[in-house]
């Protein structure tokens, strides 16, 4: 399982320039995302996120679950559709209840 802890910061152009100077140019990622839930909203009630995202034309399916300390469990797989992705995500360690 991947574990994610995310922080976001606001940066002005000067800060962005210094980051580019230290780490190089950024690579843009074009994203289109679709989120899924059950008709009763069962995933949302658990604070789980199930999505399919096209990242520069590649279909990546992901499930995220809350973890202690503000972190999240995260599993993802390249897959063309969410129905096929769910068993693959579970095989990677996502909660079996996802099925």
Helix content: 25-40%
Number of separate helices: 3
Q: Report how far apart the termini are.
A: 17 Å
Q: Total strand count, please?
A: 5
Question: Beta-strand percentage?
Answer: 25-35%
**In terms of structural class, how would the helical and strand content be classed?**
alpha+beta
Largest sheet, strands/sense/barrel: 5 strands, antiparallel
Report the radius of gyration as a whole number of Å.
Answer: 16 Å
Description:
This protein has 99 residues and is an alpha+beta fold. Helix content is 26%, strand content 32%. It contains three helices and five strands. It has helices at residues 13-23, 42-46, 82-91; strands at 2-4, 31-36, 49-55, 58-66, 72-78. A five-stranded antiparallel sheet has the order 1-5-4-3-2. The longest helix has 11 residues, at 13-23. The radius of gyration is 16 Å and the shape is globular.
Write the layout of secondary structure elements.
Blueprint: E1 2-4, H1 13-23, E2 31-36, H2 42-46, E3 49-55, E4 58-66, E5 72-78, H3 82-91
Antiparallel strand pairs: 1-5, 2-3, 3-4, 4-5
Quick overview:
This protein is globular. The protein has 3 helices and 5 strands.
Main features:
99 residues, alpha+beta, five-stranded antiparallel sheet, 3 helices, 32% strand, globular
